[in-house]
Amino acid sequence: MWLMPEEAEAFRVDRIFNAKQQLVPKIRKYYQKLEGLRDDLLLQVELAAGSRVEFRARPAEWFSGVDNKFDGTFQVVGQMDAKYGCTPYKLEGGSIALVARGICTFEQKAQMAKAAGAKAIIVYDEKMSKAPLEQQNRTGRVASKGIQSYQAGDALSGASSAALEKGMTLMMGDQGKPDLDGCMITRANGTALVDSINNGFQPKVLDVKRSRFEDGIDRFIKKDLPKLSTAMDGYSLIQRVSKTDPNEPIVNQLKADLKEFEKAVRSKDYGEIRKTWKKWNSDLDPDIGVWDLAEVF
Question: Is 271 helix (H, G, I), strand (E, B) or coil?
Fold first, then answer.
């Protein structure tokens, strides 16, 4: 045990900081991948004549659920800073606005696309600055939000959260729910679309399919669940105040929650997965913050 209370608190603060640097991105990545097994869309895209590919896309938090909203021809909204879709532009009516992530919020991007006449908006991941939105593209270190783009101490706060999965996130509005369907694709897939357009082609979404939970859960259990469990267990241990006692009540509760979560995943019961995940989350120390599985920009 610690001789002085301030020593114990300093140790705990340092432990939490390190865990948020190392464990939070892993937990977010694998849990969001698990969610994506059910919620992701599969865009059937024609990049050029005779060239068809499938792009995985994460629907925005405000998605209407109408798949054919994403059927149509892609149009880039501009070059350089204009590619972010944060300033007014015009598109052919009924087209899909292809917009880079960054500079402004997802809600602002959707509003601009709606005003431009777009049928829907598809945002592709892009390197972003760690600086505040109003300073982005002007100063600050550049790093992919898909890895982590905030200070570790902010990783679980509702206002600024670490990214969910490299390349995609669950987009949400910061003021309300935009009146335009949207989804996000990876940077690599977005770049492929931009290159196709710049080469004179007119790529389009031909069809939209839903991801089937059953198709990927066995692979997740075998490959990813052990990694997710290890990260969650490590994050559970940092909740303790004692340096030497790993059996504090909060740690024991989180370990029990984790066992129930693992059981739900192996049972392939999506309802129980969500329930047990929320239970583990709710039992975390409230001073550390809560998980926010969506981002506003």
Answer: helix
